[in-house]
Write a structure and sequence with these properties.
The complex is a heterodimer of chains A (155) and B (740). The mean pLDDT of chain A is 96. Chain A has helices spanning 26-33, 89-96, 106-119, 125-131, 143-154; strands spanning 4-11, 14-21, 52-55, 58-61, 74-76. Chain A is α+β, with helices and mostly antiparallel strands and 155 residues long. Chain A has a five-stranded mixed sheet, covered by helices on one side. Helices cover 32% and strands 17% of the residues of chain A. Chain B has 740 residues and is α+β, with helices and mostly antiparallel strands. In chain B, helix 4 (204-215) crosses helix 5 and helix 13 (483-495) packs parallel to helix 14. The longest helix of chain B is centred in the C-terminal third of the chain and has 22 residues, at 523-544. Chain B starts with 12 loop residues before the first helix and ends with a helix. Classes of the chains: A alpha+beta (155), B alpha+beta (740).
């Protein structure tokens, strides 16, 4: 448990090889070793979704993922969602339609929305609510987040 | 084209959606240590021993106790009764006693668990009833932090001849703000350069004031910088003074930068929550449904130290009689001490508690008189020229009747009322969902209460650059509500320049003047007005110096700025708060103009109640309000939707479980806030009635939506079940006990 191991994985398309404790949280490694601070910690117990990342096409709470599990994986964080200066449609919709307020849940919420639209390009309201159910927001009351998702896929 | 009323996208939106916005925990400094707090394991008692145990290299740690404090050991706020670190006596569980810093945060956590604090316990009290009954005197002579008496007319002369006297008692629970970003601060401190703190906060100058006292340093030696803030809702109004001070004390002693970030469990167990309340109403009314006398006894639980309780109590007191006219009103209110962590600011600031009681009670009075909730309220609404409970003459156009009519239409209230009554009756004997609809009518005052704004003397500055960019300097913080965007729109309108040419300077007490705290729905209305006058001063300076014609374009403005700065060195103007004319407030008698302006609202809730699971669910929600002119429709609707969602949580979800004065469910797993599947469609509508003294005609908006949902939902639930519920939070287990 307390031994360091080499873990190899890809983050936002870039290959990484790191010496880490195998039980270190992916969240901490992303934030502290890779300086990818867009992934946020809200609760540390998998309830709020602020630390959401995509691993091999699945959204997960990175606060619950030990480094031992990510060997060989491909990880997308909020920093990898936009294509250079070109924002993803979900990001642009969040700006245009009030999907972000304080912004702390936004990286996780955007990734959850991107993942939802990858799996289901034209979700119903019910699909959107359930698709985002693992991500909590305290500012918006969710209405503008739902609208942003709808606008993103209708674009 | 005027930028007022347009849906400009959030100014800092791009960095938020790309993860580039930097919150305090995203910052790091070379050589930085981490800091933690060792807290009291007991609710009340004398500290007898502190021991450092376990297999911990204690000599590597920086340890701070009350003895290390260079200045005064209190958090400067109102009464200065709360210590930064308890020296020999604790008054609530989780009270800070000792601070530790180390470069390795994992070892630090282990060390924290190995500090043993021994306390000789003394009897403690944990709720407002025991405090009122003086079961133990734990604060001052009588456990009372503050009391108010509002006395208009003479209620005592009315009771004997009233057709009806209706009494009721109502309770609300504690509520956690639950911003998704926990409290945090980073400090660098030394005797030579003074103290600098970066942190998540609403009020940089509150922190500044507190640290000046804590370190006994001159004002210019304390510098407070607000980092991007992941939600506040009042929870980052007064509390950041504590965590900033703790980080700074560790930095002062260690000589290194210290980062202190709470995890969720610590943030929930140790920081402020909404004040629990108990309200008693006694109302005299004629058989025609006219209010004759209103007597209200309003009590809030302030926790172990005074903090902001007197002002929370003030707002709750003034709002307790609502948008009704009544010749005789007596409101007696008290904030009392208990041995729980201090309760503090939370959106609405006392008003959601007293409005919950009032709007539940109004339905009860209506039923007693034999009128519908709608008709009873219509007979008592306040109008222009009439006076509130504090004898404030309403000088703005108010049309609660029209608001009510429109809200009931938008929600299809009458049709639903009739249909649900029929359908609910048919469901007898079978498990199914019963439905009901209810509403609340209310108002919310914007800005500081009474003479508060005059005492604050807020200042905003505007500064032009040679590129013709206008920089707004204010201590008002962006905490998600849209300060950056709204200030840009206001300045853009006053200057006739593109919104993109306005820059909002990061709040940093070394550079921005004190525009007051970011609280009390005051940022758009009060500080926004100062932004408007500061930039107008800038424009007039250019016109007065003949560098700018009265009619100008952007290129002329830019040339004029460059020329002025070349000649005079810089171009900066400031504006200081001036109260609107004819505003008078008597702090002694609690009579007069309590607020410069009120927002007025009618909220309608449709609720279903599942007879099998005892779950109540809000199915539809209409929020109609008059908030003056709407400056930005997307941001304004976002404020209302977010506030209503928080209020739904307050009503049906959020239950702080107390065990000997300590929050037992201090995890998001066990303290439930509404998720994306729990919130009904929230339909937001505005009536626009420009306010003469607000920028672009705007009034305050931020707290209003917290006020009306709870009573509307419980009024709807009574409509669905025929049973009256007068306590929140109302969870399925409580419903089951009451309905079985």
């Amino acid at each position: 448990m307390n031994n360091r191991h080499t873990v190899e994985f890809k983050v936002n398309g870039e290959a990484r090889s790191l010496e880490v404790f195998s039980m270190a949280r992916l969240l901490d490694v992303l934030r502290e070793q890779l300086q990818l601070t867009g992934t946020k910690e809200g609760c540390g117990e998998g309830e709020c979704g602020a630390c959401t990342v995509i691993i091999d096409g699945q959204i997960v709470n990175s606060c619950l993922v030990p480094m031992a599990q990510v060997n060989g994986c491909e990880i997308t964080t909020i920093e990898g969602v936009a294509g250079g200066d070109q924002l993803h449609a979900v990001q642009q919709a969040f700006i245009d339609h009030g999907g972000a307020q304080c912004g702390i849940c936004t990286p996780g919420m955007v990734l959850a929305a991107v993942d939802l639209l990858n799996r289901n390009p034209e979700p119903t309201e019910h699909d959107i609510r359930n698709g985002l159910a693992g991500n909590l927001c305290r500012c918006t009351g969710y209405m503008k987040i739902f609208e942003s998702v709808v606008r993103a896929y209708k674009k | 084209m005027s930028p007022i009323g347009k849906a400009f996208p959030r100014k800092e939106g791009r960095k938020k959606v790309t993860g580039k916005a930097l919150y305090v925990d995203d910052l790091s400094f070379p050589g930085m240590l981490h800091g933690v707090t060792v807290r009291s394991p007991s609710p009340r008692g004398r500290i007898t021993k502190i021991s450092f145990e376990g297999d911990i290299p204690w000599d590597e740690f920086t340890v701070v106790t009350a003895k290390d404090i260079p200045g005064a050991n209190y958090v400067a706020l109102i009464l200065n009764d709360q210590p930064y670190l308890a020296a020999d006596f604790v008054n609530h569980p989780e009270e800070p006693i000792l601070l530790l810093a180390h470069r390795d945060k994992y070892l630090l956590e282990e060390a924290r668990r190995n500090v043993r604090i021994e306390i000789e316990e003394q009897p403690a009290i944990f709720n407002l009833e025991d405090s009122l009954a003086r079961k133990e005197i734990i604060w001052g002579e009588d456990n009372v932090f503050k009391k108010y008496l509002v006395d208009k007319g003479n209620v005592d002369e009315v009771w004997a001849n009233a057709d009806f006297i209706v009494e009721g008692e109502y309770e609300t629970g504690a509520q956690e703000q639950l911003y998704i970003e926990n409290n945090g601060a980073i400090a660098i401190a030394n005797a030579d350069k003074g103290v600098t703190v970066w942190g998540s906060m609403q009020c940089p100058y509150y922190v500044h004031k507190a640290l000046v006292k804590l370190f006994d340093l001159p004002e210019e030696k304390i510098r407070i910088i607000q980092t991007e803030t992941g939600g506040g809702f009042g929870g980052k109004e007064e509390y950041p003074s504590l965590i900033a001070g703790h980080a700074a004390l560790l930095a002062w002693k260690s000589g290194k930068p210290v980062k202190m970030i709470y995890d969720r469990a610590e943030d929930m167990v140790a920081t402020t929550k909404r004040h629990p309340s108990r309200t008693r109403h006694k109302t005299a009314v004629t058989k025609d449904g006219k209010l004759l006398a209103v007597e209200i006894d309003f009590v809030i639980d302030g926790g172990a130290y005074c903090t902001l309780s007197p002002v929370v109590l003030s707002r709750g007191t003034i709002h307790s009689a609502g948008p009704y006219v009544c010749p005789n009103v007596r409101i007696h209110s008290r904030a009392v001490a208990t041995n729980v962590p201090p309760h503090g600011a939370f959106r609405g600031f006392g008003a959601p508690q007293s409005i919950f009681a009032l709007e539940r009670h109004m339905d009860k009075v209506a039923r007693t008189v034999g009128l519908t909730p709608e008709e009873f309220r219509r007979r008592n609404f306040i109008h222009e020229g009439e006076t509130t409970a504090t004898s404030q003459v309403i000088r703005e156009r108010v049309d609660m009747d029209q608001l009510l009519t429109r809200a009931l239409q938008l929600s299809n209230y009458h049709e639903k009322r009739e249909r649900f009554a029929r359908e609910n009756a048919e469901s007898n004997g079978r498990f199914r969902k019963k439905r009901g609809v209810g509403f609340a009518t209310f108002m919310h005052g914007a800005g500081f209460t009474g003479s508060g704004e005059v005492y604050l003397q807020s200042v905003v500055s505007a500064e032009a650059t040679v590129e013709g960019v206008v920089r707004i300097l204010a201590a008002s913080t962006e905490i998600g509500q849209g300060t950056n965007t709204i200030f840009s729109q206001i300045a853009s309108e006053a200057l006739g320049l593109d919104v993109d040419l306005i820059e909002i300077v990061q709040p940093d007490t070394a550079h921005v003047p004190n525009s007051g705290p970011t609280v009390a729905s005051r940022t758009s209305m009060v500080v926004g007005k100062l932004v408007e006058s500061a930039v107008t001063g800038l424009k007039q300076t250019l016109i007065g110096s003949s560098l700018l014609p009265h009619e100008y374009g952007q290129s002329e403005f830019k040339r004029a700025c460059a020329e002025y700065i070349a000649r005079f060195g810089s171009l900066k103007t400031s504006s200081t708060y001036q109260p609107p004319p004819n505003v008078h407030w008597d702090d002694e008698k609690y009579q007069g103009d309590a607020y410069g302006a009120y927002a007025w609202a009618v909220y309608v809730a449709e609720v279903s109640f599942d007879e099998l699971t005892y779950a109540a669910h809000v199915e539809d929600f209409v929020a109609l309000q008059e908030v003056g002119r709407v400056l930005n429709p997307v941001l304004a609707a976002g404020q209302i939707e977010g506030g209503v969602a928080q209020a739904i949580g307050f009503t049906l979800f959020e239950n702080v479980v107390w065990k000997d004065g300590r929050m037992a469910n201090n995890q998001m797993t066990n303290y439930i806030i509404p998720t994306p599947v729990d919130i009904p469609p929230i339909r937001v509508y505005f009536e626009e009635n420009p306010y003469a003294y607000g920028p672009g005609g705007a009034k305050g908006i931020g707290e209003l939506p917290m006020d009306g949902a709870a009573p509307a939902i419980l009024n709807a639930l009574e409509n669905a079940t025929g049973v009256s519920f007068n306590e929140i939070p109302l969870l399925p287990e409580t419903l089951m006990v009451k309905l079985l």
